[in-house]
Amino acid sequence: MKKPADIAKFLKDRGLRVSLQKLEIARHVLGVHRHFTAEEIFKEVNAEFTRVSRATVFNVLNLFVEHGLLKTVRARSDVLLYDSNTEEHDHVVIAETGKIFDVQLPEKEKQSLLKSVWAKNPHLPKRATASVVVHV
Ligand SMILES: [Zn+2]
Q1: Which fold, 4-83?
Q2: Å from CA of 61 to ligand 1 middle
Q3: What is the pTM of this model?
């Protein structure tokens, strides 16, 4: 969903107000697969378009998360990342650059990895949808 008309319809269908800012932010984050911070989107949007505040960028990204268009990823401790791939998947993070890649670990191996971590650390929360982040 990258076309402004599709995004406008999506917003309207959910009773959300359509604004130029929302459409512009959507153009940067939807329909292309990427991981990003709110700050990166703030800079991109303002580099080529009318001024959009940090608060608006943050609010619109969170609105998109709320409506399942994006999800958040806790793959780095320094920043909150947003992910335009909303399917269940795992990540590999390059330690030096913080660059993040999607990977699909085989479910059986992933569950066995998580089980061994939980067995050694019983205090950790056990979530059915835990994802794995590998730092290299
Ligand atoms: Zn991802």
Answers
A1: Arc Repressor Mutant, subunit A (1.10.10)
A2: 16
A3: 0.83
